[in-house]
Every structure is written in structure tokens, then in C-alpha cells.
């Protein structure tokens, strides 16, 4: 495996806050230094420290960073709240100490998980924190998501998670009740926030186990996304968040269809806005080219006899020049690891080819060769790299296809590494569910009917109810 490579900040920057306080030499890795990661301590980073305080003087001592330009030309400074002031904003004073703790965890950990690399001041999901005083259902969902995230992390660490689970379920129930009232009185201007809420219910399911009501949430979010395409009243300051949410919803729906029974009564419309995937590709933690997602979407509509369309999709996937696509992405963080992005994107492309070949077996592709190609691309990604969280779906596809015991074990180790070896730990329960599904697929290999592959068997089973992204 290649040696681990982590982006480093410029050498003229100060050490992280923890290392400065303890007078240690900091390696200035981004977004968290290795000393903090190895010691199991949350790195406070290199920018201004956010502190809970009632003293108004704290805000006066710190200057807000200059607004950054978004790719659309809109300034992040147009938002009525400054990201660095979220946690000391007077509009959050109504929150209890426990709720503020969860909002802090959402700001420092959950938002980091939701993007490829957490760029200071350019994480669209932190806009949610500025909106919770306006939309009660967003406040409840931020708390529920953060509490579930902490609960899952505590379970991984062998600690009690009872209090966090109770808080997560209580906040989720509150969010459902508040959202019902909001939908009843929804206006075109508030539809975007309703979409944010619905997609975060999907994130809640992913953090918990990847099971649950995600299919209904994706269906509802898909309908709302379609209507928002024709809504000109969206506040430009909310556009980054709305785009990120719409892109996640679309990605979840496309990748979710690969291992789950497709709901033919509510397919994705032909005019779905795929351009949102391009606008958000710098932030997407999946690191999957929009062109590859388009291939997967088209393949999900094929029948086993559609050999010619399947062959055309394989040619389209192979025509994608992955390195050129990576270099064309606008808005990447300074020091972003382009080589790793190429490896992940290439793994997604090979996995898409495998998916097409499983949907239409008559296309005649060598499935074992495709699985090996996926594994070779994945092997270029260090198992403690911050972008490893974008490899779950291709790892699952390769693991499910391979018959080699060594490769199977490697795939399980890689999925577990997203939790155990990554300094930016990503405790999402659907990853553990994916490992359990792989074990079931392997156990049932000998029971496959003649002419049936593992994907066809999975979609026809009761286990086909997990979102693998």
C-alpha cells in the first residue's frame, strides 16, 4: 500500500491550539494534526477558537474572516451570519447547555464528515447553524444528527451511548412534529429548508445503520428537488447549502438504487438537474465524477436484455478521462491530494462498469477483471486518508463480486478502516451494515440459482434495505 499522505499547512503558520498550549511541535497536518489524532484528542485546528461564553466581549476580540467567493459568484459574506460567530451568536442563547454541546459537535465533527475536505469558511453545511433560530425543525435535526453521531462514536469506543441515543430520538421526534407543521404551511421560499430537513433525516439513518425510512425520505426529497428547480425565490446566500443538499440527495438516490429494489412508480425524471453535481463536486465526499453517476442512473433503467444500451454505457464510462476531470474541479482546498482523488474516481468508474455488467449480464464483460480493477484503484488510497470515506460504495461492489478470500478480507479491513484507522474518524453506522451485508452475500454464494448473479439475488431478498453510499 502507498505511504500515507496528508495535506500540510504552510510552514509559516502557527501550530494547532492544542500543541501550542502544551508546547509541543505540531506537524500542521490539515484539517487535524497527528499528535491530536493519535492521542484521541479533538484537534482545535489553526483558526480562531470558538468558545461558549455569555460575555459579549468575546466577539469584539475576534475579527470575522473576509468573505470568500463562491463559484457561482455569490459571496459567503452575504449570509446574515458569520460562520466564525455561529456558536457565540445571541440568537443561540435560547439553547440549553446540552443543546449547545450538540451544536458544537455538529460544527466541529458532523459538518467535517459531510464534505470531502473541510475548508475553513467554505463548508456549506455550517450555514444550517445560522438558520436554526429561524426554523425549529432544523434546530431539532442538528441536535438529533449530532447526538446520533456522538452515540455511534461512543459505541465504537466501547463507551455508554444511552444518553446520546435518548437525546437523538427525542430531537428526531421533535423534528418530525415541527416539520409536519412546516410542510402544511410551506411557501416557495421555505421549500429549500424543508428539503434540507428531509435529506438530514436520510443522514440520520446513515449515521445510525443505513436502514430505516430512507427510501421514503429520498422519494419525498426527489419530488421537492424537482419543484425547486423552478423556484426563483431562493436567497442567494443559501444557494451553497441548497446545492449541497440537492447533490447529496441525488447521489444517495442513484447509489442507493444499485443494491436496492427500484421503485418504478417514482423513478428519477429525465430532466433531473445533474448540473448540481458539477457545482458541488469540490465538496462531495463521494469524490465520484458526475458523468459516472449519470452512467449508473442510466443503467438502473435497463432490462437484462438491453445489451446494446449497456455496451454504449460501458463505452461512455471508459471515455471519461479521470485525471482531466479531477484537474477541472473548481474550489478544491489548497494542498488537496489530486492523486488520491484520481484513484477514488477511477474506482467509482470501474464499479459503475461492474454494475452495468451485473444489470445486463449478456453484455459479456469479465466481472472478475472489473472487480480486480476496482481493488487496484482503491489500493492507491492510503487507509488513513481523509478521503477514504468516499470509497465505501466501490469497495462494497468489489467485495461482493470477488471470490478471492484474501480480497474479501482486504475489503472488510478497508471498510473498517474508515472508522478505526482514519484520524478524521467517520462513525457512520451504514458502513458497519455494509460489512454485514458482504458476509451475507458471500454466505449465499453457493445458493445462487443458475444464471443469477449476487446483485439480482440481493435485490430480491429482504436484506435489500440498506443505503450503501
UniProtKB/TrEMBL annotation:
SMART domains in UniProt: GAL4 (SM00066)
GO CC terms in record: nucleus
One record GO biological process: positive regulation of transcription by RNA polymerase II
Primary site of residence: nucleus
GO molecular function: DNA-binding transcription factor activity, RNA polymerase II-specific; transcription cis-regulatory region binding; zinc ion binding
Domain Zn(2)-C6 fungal-type: 15-43
Keywords of the record: DNA-binding, Nucleus, Transcription, Transcription regulation, Zinc
Subcellular localization: Nucleus
Pfam families: Fungal_trans_2, Zn_clus
Keyword DNA repair annotated: no
Annotated region described as Disordered, given as residue ranges: 59-80
Name by which UniProt lists this protein: Fungal-specific transcription factor domain-containing protein
Amino acid at each position: 500500500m502507498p505511504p500515507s499522505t496528508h495535506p500540510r499547512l504552510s510552514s509559516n503558520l502557527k501550530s494547532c491550539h492544542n500543541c501550542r498550549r502544551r508546547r509541543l511541535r505540531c506537524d500542521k497536518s490539515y484539517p487535524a494534526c497527528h499528535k491530536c489524532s493519535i492521542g484521541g484528542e479533538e484537534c482545535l485546528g489553526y483558526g480562531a477558537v470558538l468558545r461558549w461564553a455569555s460575555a459579549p466581549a468575546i466577539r469584539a476580540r475576534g475579527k470575522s474572516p473576509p468573505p470568500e467567493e463562491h463559484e457561482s459568484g455569490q459571496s459567503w459574506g452575504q449570509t446574515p451570519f458569520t460562520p466564525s460567530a455561529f456558536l457565540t451568536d445571541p440568537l443561540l442563547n435560547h439553547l440549553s447547555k446540552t443543546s449547545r454541546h450538540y451544536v458544537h459537535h455538529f460544527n466541529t465533527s458532523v459538518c467535517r464528515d459531510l464534505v470531502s475536505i473541510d475548508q475553513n469558511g467554505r463548508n456549506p453545511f455550517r450555514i444550517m447553524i445560522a438558520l436554526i433560530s429561524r426554523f425549529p425543525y432544523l434546530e431539532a435535526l442538528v441536535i438529533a444528527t449530532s447526538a446520533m453521531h456522538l452515540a455511534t462514536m461512543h459505541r465504537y469506543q466501547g463507551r455508554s451511548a444511552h444518553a446520546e441515543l435518548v437525546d437523538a430520538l427525542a430531537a428526531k421526534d421533535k423534528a418530525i412534529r415541527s416539520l409536519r407543521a412546516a410542510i402544511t404551511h410551506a411557501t416557495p421560499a421555505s421549500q429549500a429548508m424543508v428539503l434540507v430537513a428531509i435529506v438530514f433525516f436520510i443522514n440520520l439513518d446513515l449515521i445510525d445503520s443505513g436502514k430505516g425510512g430512507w427510501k421514503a425520505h429520498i422519494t419525498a426529497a426527489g419530488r421537492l428537488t424537482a419543484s425547486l428547480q423552478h423556484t426563483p425565490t431562493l436567497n442567494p446566500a443559501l444557494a451553497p447549502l441548497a446545492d449541497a443538499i440537492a447533490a447529496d440527495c441525488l447521489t444517495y438516490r442513484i447509489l442507493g438504487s444499485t443494491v436496492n429494489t427500484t421503485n418504478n412508480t417514482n423513478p428519477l425524471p429525465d430532466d433531473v438537474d445533474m448540473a448540481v453535481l458539477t457545482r458541488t463536486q469540490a465538496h462531495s465526499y463521494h469524490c465520484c465524477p458526475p458523468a459516472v453517476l449519470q452512467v449508473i442512473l442510466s443503467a438502473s433503467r435497463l432490462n437484462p436484455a438491453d445489451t446494446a444500451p449497456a455496451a454504449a454505457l460501458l463505452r461512455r464510462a471508459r471515455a471519461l478521462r479521470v485525471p482531466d476531470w479531477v484537474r477541472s474541479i473548481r474550489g478544491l482546498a489548497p494542498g488537496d491530494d489530486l492523486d488520491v482523488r484520481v484513484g477514488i474516481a477511477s474506482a467509482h468508474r470501474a464499479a459503475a462498469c461492474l454494475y452495468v455488467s451485473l444489470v445486463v449480464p449478456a453484455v459479456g464483460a469479465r466481472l472478475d477483471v472489473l472487480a480486480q480493477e476496482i481493488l487496484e484503484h482503491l489500493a492507491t488510497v492510503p487507509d488513513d486518508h481523509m478521503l477514504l470515506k468516499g470509497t465505501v460504495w466501490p469497495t462494497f461492489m468489489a467485495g461482493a463480486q470477488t471470490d478471492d478470500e484474501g480480497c474479501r478480507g482486504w475489503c472488510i479491513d478497508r471498510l473498517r478502516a474508515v472508522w478505526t484507522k482514519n484520524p478524521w474518524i467517520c462513525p457512520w453506522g451504514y458502513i458497519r451494515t455494509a460489512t454485514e451485508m458482504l458476509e451475507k452475500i458471500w454466505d449465499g454464494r453457493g445458493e445462487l440459482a443458475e444464471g443469477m448473479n449476487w446483485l439480482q439475488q440481493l435485490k430480491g431478498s429482504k436484506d435489500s434495505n440498506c443505503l450503501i453510499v
